[in-house]
Design brief:
The protein contains 2 helices and 2 strands; from the N terminus they run H-E-E-H. By secondary structure, it is of the alpha+beta class. The protein has a domain of 43 residues. It has a two-stranded antiparallel sheet with strand order 1-2. Strand 1 and strand 2 form a beta hairpin. The model has no long low-confidence stretch (mean pLDDT 76).
């Protein structure tokens, strides 16, 4: 009987450890699109200045350029 209980506890611990694993990159969901803004503010590739969508790019150098020179997307742009 004690072996059965020990085996049951070991099985429960193994299953709980497998379920509690940290999700990897394949399991992540894309940031959700906000229909009122027209873009997702949680998306790390989006550049928005004062709530105005300027652009989206995965390259951090391009995002830095969009922040420096937002252009006509933002009032008072260059």
């Amino acid at each position: 009987m004690t072996r059965f209980i020990a085996a049951l506890i070991a099985a429960v611990l193994a299953i709980s450890a497998a379920v509690a694993q940290v999700p990897n990159a394949r399991n992540r969901t894309a940031p959700r699109h906000d229909p009122y803004l027209g873009y997702s503010p949680a998306d790390p590739h989006v550049v928005a200045i004062d709530g105005a969508y300027v652009g989206r790019d995965p390259d951090p150098n391009i995002r830095a350029q969009l922040r420096r020179f937002p252009g006509s997307y933002v009032s008072g742009g260059f």
